[in-house]
Amino acid sequence: xxxxxxxxxxxxxxxxxxxxxxxxxxxxxxxxxxxxxxxxxxxxxxxxxxxxxxxxxxxxxxxxxxxxxxxxxxxxxxxxxxxxxxxxxxxxxxxxxxxxxxxxxxxxxxxxxxxxxxxxxxxxxxxxxxxxxxxxxxxxxxxxxxxxxxxxxxxxxxxxxxxxxxxxxxxxxxxxxxxxxxxxxxxxxxxxxxxxxxxxxxxxxxxxxxxxxxxxxxxxxxxxxxxxxxxxxxxxxxxxxxxxxxxxxxxxxxx
Length: 255
Prior knowledge:
Elements: H1 4-17, H2 21-38, H3 43-46, H4 49-60, H5 62-80, H6 85-99, H7 102-115, H8 117-133, H9 137-142, H10 147-165, H11 174-196, H12 200-212, H13 217-227, H14 239-254
Helix pairs in contact: 1-2, 1-4, 2-4, 2-5, 4-5, 5-6, 6-7, 6-8, 7-8, 10-11, 11-12, 11-13, 12-13
């Protein structure tokens, strides 16, 4: 995908490397506010690389963090005013993850629940990590209806991905490893809530079921390993940021 919006995002990263901080911030603000008007498919980039680049700038230019917090607060205001909907919640949650402010996401969600239960229900999946981190398992349990159905749905998605995208040997297919990691994280989130609610027998049954629902032997073995207590993820913590930093360094050398 090559668009003017992406070019502006890449320009912001270049400006950050060059020390043109105010210009970089202007491009990042534009990208966050207007990129989806140009290309809706950029949503994932906007809340991943867009925010990674923004945090790169914030480390060198504190005004960038202030500006990002202002964007977050704008999404909060829209959500609580009833004009933002699920999109605004997803945006503020993504920003708070990069800012290290999940507690604020939890607080906004509880405020939203009191004001607009239907919208809160629609946002509950995106809020779950913040709810769990807050230790509010009673609240998390309210939004964990039919855990077995959730696991069956997630396993069907994993099995489809494996069947349709495994084009190389398992040990050299990072995409498959990513699917396994994401599936295991979804299951562990469900299990964490069940255990936090005192439903330990159900948690054990769901853990076993999650592996049993995967027919491919190698994938099932990897899922079981990923679900073990203390299992290391398929990538080291922070690897996404590490790879991002390597890309920035490569771009700087090529400039």
